[in-house]
Design brief:
About 25% of the residues lie in helices and about 20% in strands. Helix 4 runs parallel beside helix 5, helix 7 packs across helix 8 and helix 8 packs parallel to helix 9. The chain folds into two domains: about 130 residues, Lyase, Ornithine Decarboxylase, Chain A, domain 1; about 240 residues, Alanine racemase (TIM Barrel, Alpha-Beta Barrel), CATH 3.20.20. The strands form three sheets. Strands 1, 2, 13, 14, 15, 16, 17, 18 and 19 form a nine-stranded mixed beta sheet that branches. An eight-stranded parallel β-barrel has the order 3-4-5-6-7-9-11-12. The chain is an alpha/beta fold. It binds pyridoxal-5'-phosphate. Pyridoxal-5'-phosphate binds next to helix 10.
């Protein structure tokens, strides 16, 4: 596999006129090692953030053995890519067929639920043909918790409330030897207190149910860094989570799990686009709302940007920056990204822009709408534009570095 030093080398060698994804396996490896070494429990990877088989293999090689999957297609993909991985089916609403295939054909034992109907479905779909119930189920009851500290809410769709949880925990306990509670505080949680609040709620549910709990899964939500979103160190999150986990009324050997998607994948990729046209302070680029920049268009997410002049440009790019908005390549007005994205004020058609931190919910969102959609992927060796794991942030902690060997 050819490895380019950086975006400039890709531009020199390929001069791509279609959007190109630049992958950094070393950055994903560093993120995985950081969680392996510092999170006080087991780390699962939430596959939906970026299901690229190449990334799955990097994470596996870095020691991530458990994968949070949400659909039967994700189950098949991870099983095919990583035959020995432990798969956990964490979507609380599944079809009977998906549950049965996951359990009987792919060895999935861990299932999430938030209603009595889903419990009944799981129990029925996993039993043997003669009706003998499965004896090796591992069940997780999903609790609804607040998303108030997160940039993207996950509070309204899934999870049972505190009134329903005790009964559901008691019912699930009848069908498994290993019972857990899980939740999700929302994505890009900007404060560790998100988890404190959720663990308080977990405590209330467990106390009311009076059942033995074997594991707590605090979900995803760990942040990455973007312009205007500088989170506290992840060590602060881990410390406060460990403290509140230890105070829960659970089995003495209970496990603690987390399921990061964004934090493990964000630094893995950037996107190299070319400017096709300039109209005042609007740049028409060759990827957008229907490509890897879904969040930039739909939730006004801001990503870091860096410009490189077209190879044939004689003038070069100015030091002065100005704020730009982007239009994507499709014919749809909604294919618009407000930004603002600060770029050289004399940027023009033909120049390139590298858009950083799109490894999570970027590459994974691309469609082929209107015949556009980033296709080419290359590997680069330079650093991501931002990193939570490199140990060089403004508020570093003495032990905030995980070495790359
Ligand atoms: C999306 C999702 C995750 C990953 O969330 P991040 O905010 O990307 O860390 C983890 N668990 C579940 C159940 C999810 O739906």
């Amino acid at each position: 596999m050819h490895i380019y030093p950086d975006a400039q080398a890709v531009i020199r060698d390929l001069a791509p006129d279609e959007a190109t994804i630049l992958n950094r396996p070393h950055a994903a490896q560093r993120a995985a090692r950081f969680f392996k070494e510092k999170f006080p429990g087991k780390t699962l990877y939430a596959v939906k953030a970026n299901p690229s088989p190449a990334l799955l293999k990097v994470l596996w090689d870095a020691g991530i053995t458990h994968y949070d999957v949400a659909s039967i297609a994700e189950v098949r993909l991870v099983r095919e890519t990583l035959p020995k991985a432990q798969l956990c089916f964490m979507h609380p609403v599944k079809t009977r067929r998906a549950i049965a295939e996951a359990y009987h054909s792919h060895g999935v034992k861990t299932f999430c639920l938030d209603t009595a109907e889903e419990l009944e479905k799981i129990v029925a779909a996993c039993s043997a043909e003669d009706g003998t119930p499965a004896k090796d189920l591992r069940l997780l009851v999903r609790l609804r918790v607040s998303s108030e500290y997160a940039e993207l809410s996950l509070a309204s769709k899934f999870g049972c409330d505190l009134i329903e949880a005790p009964q559901l925990l008691q019912a699930a306990r009848q069908h498994c030897d290993w019972l857990g509670v899980c939740f999700h505080v929302g994505s890009q949680a900007m404060s560790p207190f998100a988890y404190v609040q959720a663990l308080d709620r977990t405590r209330a549910a467990i106390a009311e149910a009076s059942v033995v709990i074997d594991m707590i899964d605090i979900g995803g939500g760990f942040p990455s860094i973007y312009p205007g979103m500088e989170p506290p160190p992840l060590e602060d999150y881990f410390a406060i989570i460990a403290k509140h986990f230890e105070a829960l009324p659970i089995a003495y050997n209970a496990e603690l799990w987390c399921e990061p998607g964004r934090a493990l994948a964000a630094e893995y990729s950037s996107l190299l686009v070319q400017v096709d046209k300039r109209r005042g302070d609007e740049l028409f680029i060759n990827d957008g709302a229907y490509g890897a920049l879904y969040d930039a268009a739909h939730v006004d997410w801001r990503f870091p940007v860096e410009a490189t002049a077209a190879p044939e440009s004689r003038e070069g790019l100015s030091e002065e920056l100005a704020d730009f908005a982007f239009f994507g390549p499709t014919c749809d007005d909604a294919d618009y990204m407000a930004g603002p994205f600060p770029l050289p004020e004399n940027i023009q058609a033909g120049d390139y822009i590298e858009i950083g931190m799109i490894g999570a919910y970027g590459a994974a969102m691309a469609t082929g709408f209107n015949g556009f959609g980033s296709s080419a992927q290359v590997t680069v060796a330079d650093e991501p534009m931002e990193s939570l794991f490199r140990g060089d942030r403004e508020r570093p902690q003495a032990d905030n570095v995980v070495s790359l060997r």
